[in-house]
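Run folding on both entries below.
>entry_1
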Amino acid sequence: MRVSRIQAEQNRQTVIDVASRLFREHGFDGIGLKDLMKGAGLTQGAFYKQFASKEDLAAQASKRAMESAAHRWAAATTANPGDPLGAVAAFYLSMDHREERMDGCPVAALGSDAARQGTDVKASFEAGIREHLEIIGRMIAAADGEPNSKAMAVLSTMVGALMISRVVNDPHLAQAFLDSATEQVRDAVTA
């Protein structure tokens, strides 16, 4: 059965959305095309009509995941415009976010996997990371146009703490990493 161009594009977007979530949960190599397509409600045969390769999908899914993260940051800052970085840190460095493997931060979920991928996947992450640095830079009044060291330190601290909190079993230790990072982010802004 042939599908319309509109339906084909909707199917493509669904696959990108589903892959964005499933890659964050399982890693790029932790889930096969069959299961990705099943998650999107489509057959594996439809994949190659939509994407050149799994890496092509990984790059597009990574871009979508980074866009989703930026939207979450924007929502947090809108909810607390008086302390935008505090608002981002509060949601990002929380136990709830720690548990959001499918919808949480793609850098924390896939950073080490992305480092082993091709240039297109890395480019998707790099663009998203640059956007995060720009947002943090604006929050801490860095207007020189280049990612400054303070914004880089804040982002590194947040991502590292979230990643480590996901690695440990002890919820008290996980919370301690998140709390320590929250303090460091606060201190970095006031320093």
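>entry_2
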Amino acid sequence: MSKDYFQLHMPENVCFGCGVSNEEGLHVKSYWEGDEAVCQWESEEKYHGWANLLNGGILATIIDCHCMGTAMADAYRKEDRSLDSDPVYRYATGTLNIKYLKPTPNDKTIELRTKVTEVKGRKTVMHCRSIVEGVVTAEAEVIAIRVYDSSQDQGGNPFK
């Protein structure tokens, strides 16, 4: 069975980190595994910081994009509806607070695991871990803000 990646339900997305419509992007893809959103991401040599280590800004980008997709998917899940249903929600970063704990290898699969810890109005708070071969290399507290709700659209949908 193929995974239902959150980002595939945002066909107009041109974001560098998660946009399916950005050929040059990082192509972050997230899915549910129980109550956690998971992303398995493979880097490329061009994203290194030091030799064989991932650049910290790239790690921040994949965490950020994974969490924005998670906030969206969580909202749909809480409403017990498909990611292809209306109204359409989109999220943007309110806060991204990362603790880099250990160097992140650039030549191994990076797994992101995120749990939603609080939802209050348009705000979703999440805890994300970056894990490589069982070792947590970074932890992040991320706040996503719902910035678009198609049920409130007055003809100004920025995604069309």
